């Protein structure tokens, strides 16, 4: 992976947030036979992509999506198989994850909790994270998702707090999404709200549309 492409910034609302997408592409042969010439304008499909949304005033991360084979490849492939077996129960899906080599399937909740990289994420999300609930989501609206859904409390160094959501893939426990509401802060006994909350995506296994 030797090329970085940054798209945007795509301004969704100049008064609230802006966003951009980062793509990593492989400029090597990428499967071409030795001696094969690439066509003019040829470029590989992105190996890894990440989409970020920031508050342009506070420079805080509000939303992050990561997808691509290094992070979600095995998860996506197994999700396709699960979608082909609508009759599979939660237990059968769990067994399929174990058979596929997932380290953090539904049967390994304690191991997943122990492996949560909360301190490592703190500098990137701009605040302390305190887990409030953890749930393995096998399906959403009959579509396979196969991810850990974590509800947490976000607290900034200056005392602001809000709710946030994170999802992790089950094979290596890698983060695939982060989103939080705009932070609230108690001032003089009153609670102030700095903006509208970020919307929860109903199907975290699927990357955002371009």
Task: Kindly summarize this structure in a few lines.
The protein has 210 residues and is α+β, with helices and mostly antiparallel strands. The protein has helices at 69-83, 90-99, 109-115, 118-125, and strands spanning 3-13, 17-25, 48-55, 60-68, 128-140, 143-155, 161-168, 175-180, 184-187, 190-193. A hairpin with a 5-residue loop joins strand 6 and strand 7 (161-168).
Structural features, described:
- The protein is α+β, with helices and mostly antiparallel strands.
- The protein has helices at residues 69-83, 90-99, 109-115, 118-125; strands at 3-13, 17-25, 48-55, 60-68, 128-140, 143-155, 161-168, 175-180, 184-187, 190-193.
- It has one domain.
- The radius of gyration is 19 Å and the shape is globular.
- Strand 3 and strand 4 form a beta hairpin.
- Helices cover 19% and strands 40% of the residues.
- The model is unreliable at 1-14, 31-35 and 195-205 (pLDDT under 50).
- The protein has an 8-stranded antiparallel sheet, with helices on one face. Strands 9-10 form a two-stranded antiparallel ribbon.
Task: Name the descriptors.
eight-stranded antiparallel beta sheet, 10 strands, alpha+beta, disordered N terminus, 210 residues
């Amino acid at each position: 992976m030797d090329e970085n492409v940054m798209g945007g910034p795509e301004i969704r609302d100049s008064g609230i947030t802006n966003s951009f997408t980062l793509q990593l592409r492989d400029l090597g042969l990428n499967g071409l036979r030795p001696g094969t010439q690439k066509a003019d304008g040829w470029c590989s499909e992105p190996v890894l992509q990440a989409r970020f949304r920031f508050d342009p005033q506070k420079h805080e991360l509000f939303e992050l999506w990561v997808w691509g084979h290094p992070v979600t490849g095995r998860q996506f492939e197994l999700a396709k198989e699960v979608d082909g077996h609508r009759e599979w129960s939660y237990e059968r899906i769990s067994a399929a994850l174990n058979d596929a080599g997932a380290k953090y399937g539904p049967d390994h909740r304690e191991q997943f909790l122990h492996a949560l990289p909360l301190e490592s994420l703190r500098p990137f999300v701009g605040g302390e994270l305190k887990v409030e609930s953890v749930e393995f989501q096998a399906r959403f609206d009959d579509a396979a998702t196969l991810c850990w859904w974590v509800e947490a409390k976000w607290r900034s160094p200056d005392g602001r707090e809000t709710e946030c959501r994170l999802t992790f893939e089950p094979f290596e426990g890698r983060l695939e999404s982060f989103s939080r509401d705009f932070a609230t802060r108690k001032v003089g006994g009153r609670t102030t709200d700095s903006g509208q909350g970020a919307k929860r995506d109903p199907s975290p296994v699927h990357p955002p549309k371009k």
